[in-house]
Design brief:
Chains A, B, C: Catalyzes the condensation of carbamoyl phosphate and aspartate to form carbamoyl aspartate and inorganic phosphate, the committed step in the de novo pyrimidine nucleotide biosynthesis pathway. The structure is a homotrimer of 291-residue chains. Chain A is of the alpha/beta class and 291 residues long. In chain A, 37% of the residues lie in helices and 15% in strands.
């Protein structure tokens, strides 16, 4: 099986993930060495929503493979304001470039793009839909930090209702034999269709903290924080004192108040290594799609 | 004769066009192969007006030749907001780069830039002035689609009064032995100085459709559409059924309602090939100016 | 001594400046020849304030060394609007890139960035703080134009109170045996802590013009011009007629009305050569930091 586009985590099985992570791992070891597998190739970073972090990660990934990047970050994307439909924009960019990374506010936009595109489409987030490369880098980080995936206890905490990131990761984890815990206020619970019978849903971190191998903390949207009153889903030094000495703390970043800066020096704080893994996984993915 | 700047279609004669198209054709055949004639060269994409399509085309053209692109797309172009004149901006960028592609809202801006610039200036549209590279890629597409230019019947339809694109193409076509038809509502006719005695001006496509080899449809500006009431200068499947089986349909894109999506599968729909030709012609032009 | 970050002119002594200028001079001679010392390296151009001129100069410097540039010029820098602190943004970009050029509206921002960054930080202006690379290119231009620094009479004119540029240059000149004159209206005088006893402060250019070897004119901020009433700190042809035939006129650009266009043809007008020197000095600095 060979993927033409990366639209959803559902496209990935264990064999494909293993192949991808093999290359991402190789790239991480080669850090500092020049790789130019994609010399002469051009990637379009087509962002209808600003997302400096994600667009920068793809920009760096393509650049570090010797390729070039056409950045289209303008909020006032001119052709769009002239009323052009997404399909025409994609077909036009496909005349100029070899691959298109798309961030779009509407769910299903990436699939619509793929339906007309002669070049690979990578979904970099389509509204409340998916963000598959984020889930892949999260999974790669779990493996890199813990040395395995099967047998782990993974706890996700925060606003689980709106978090595209935890939705995609949750679906990807179904491929493995893991225990999953969800910690959130009742009004911000995981969507029911993503919760399996074996999963545990609680409102307090302390109920599952002791057994947790990977703690995935998500960003608090201020608006929602205010509506839920006393929001206490932030990690504290007290939590860390009671957690496993081998626990990994992950966060998709940017963080606001969910993780205090004082925890950054804790070796269990994996979120900046997670950022760097994003680069390696995206490099592996670009090589796979264009290689 | 050697061009230093590309400001107007009037700078091009048949010999120069032939040379340019020879290289554009060679590039189109080499597609996929790495060309790095402009390695080490830097192009400034200086856009005072947003035009993602044109800036992307130049970005891709330079990148595919191994060169680099400095994109300056900000609407809030800082030095300008500090009151700097265009001439100083050009002289500054000429200290950093090897060629400047300029889009500016004022007619004559490209000529003003060229007057002070030690590096080549490429006019990528100056207000109601010119957009010479668009006209060149249009002409190249006519040749590529029809196998010749002399002897053809070319029909331009839509808002011919405001369309910079059709104005430039019309002037370039004067070099050849072609029949030209203009189809528009009376209030959106071609400017009189661009119409030659042999040209035909009509208000209905059906008057000239049967004999047309190349149908060039232009975008409808919504504001003008409303002012002209019942605007019916859109192409339909019915038109296509009555047109020549070898007719080429062109459009500078983006389209809004002038060409329905259902026509895209018709082999006569040449507008996406036209986009790709834009890349080839601009690559040839950059090689010519910097080679 | 080896610099890890470039934050302030105070980090530079004469030996380091000499080494830097040796390389900048070598680069200026090699102009046109391809240099690819930084192939495979990626620079982040992180601009919280728009400054096309400075960001373009760093973009060109990195590109001309064979490196790549990730441009982050968005005013609506997304992660920031999500409340991320500067330190986290820096640590994230350091996961993707090899060096970060930072322009930030707050004094001390570059030092804060350097405190957490594993990759070199180059201060490209931090509010009313410093802009060290501007001062270095100014000093390089003085040397290039006059053939020496010691023994010269340098006059700075204009708004000396708010000009970050003249502040940094003034501090750098203390390393040399130069006579310094400051010309400004009383309310826009140089900050007292930057004035040495030997320096001369006057309100009229004519008081020091005759002996001046280098005249550094600064930009007039319109708002401040109005508040000071009859502002006459612009250079005229009459001034030039009375100045030394070997005097160099410098300006950080953009200019507004401080230097009339009619002076551009005067061989003493050094401001566009100053621009180009900025490219060479920044290339030398990037090579030094990443080489």
């Amino acid at each position: 099986m060979k993927l033409n586009h990366v639209l959803s985590v559902d496209q990935f099985d264990k064999a494909l993930i293993e192949e991808l992570f093999y290359h991402a791992n190789w790239i991480s070891k080669a850090k500092g060495h020049s790789i130019s597998h994609l010399r002469g190739k051009l990637l379009a970073n087509l962002f209808y929503e600003a997302s400096t972090r994600t667009s920068s990660s793809f920009f760096a990934a393509m650049s570090r493979l010797g390729g070039r990047v056409l950045p289209i970050n303008d909020v006032t994307f001119s052709s769009v304001s002239k009323g052009e439909i997404l399909e025409d924009t994609i077909r036009t960019l496909a005349c100029y470039t070899d691959i298109i990374v798309l961030r779009h506010p509407e769910k299903g936009a990436a699939a619509r793009a793929a339906a007309v595109s002669p070049v690979p489409i990578v979904n970099a987030g389509d509204g409340v839909g998916e963000h598959p490369t984020q889930a892949l880098l999260d999974l790669f980080t779990i493996l890199a930090e813990q040395g395995r995936i099967d047998g782990l206890s993974v706890t996700m905490m925060g606003d689980l209702k709106h978090g595209r990131t935890v939705h995609s990761l949750s679906r990807l984890l179904r491929l493995y034999d893991v225990t999953v815990n969800y910690v959130s206020p009742p009004e911000l619970r995981m969507p029911p269709d993503l919760v399996r019978p074996a999963d545990r849903e609680v409102v307090e971190l302390d109920e599952v903290l002791a057994g947790t191998d990977v703690l995935y903390v998500t960003r608090v949207q201020k608006e929602r924080f205010e509506s839920t009153g006393d929001y206490h889903y932030a990690l504290t030094e007290d939590h860390m004192a009671r957690a496993k000495p081998t626990m990994s703390v992950m966060h998709p970043l940017p963080r606001v108040n969910e993780i205090p800066l004082s925890l950054d020096a804790d070796p269990r704080a994996a979120y900046f290594r997670q950022m760097q893994n994003g680069l390696f996984v995206r490099m592996a993915l670009l090589m796979y799609l264009l290689g």
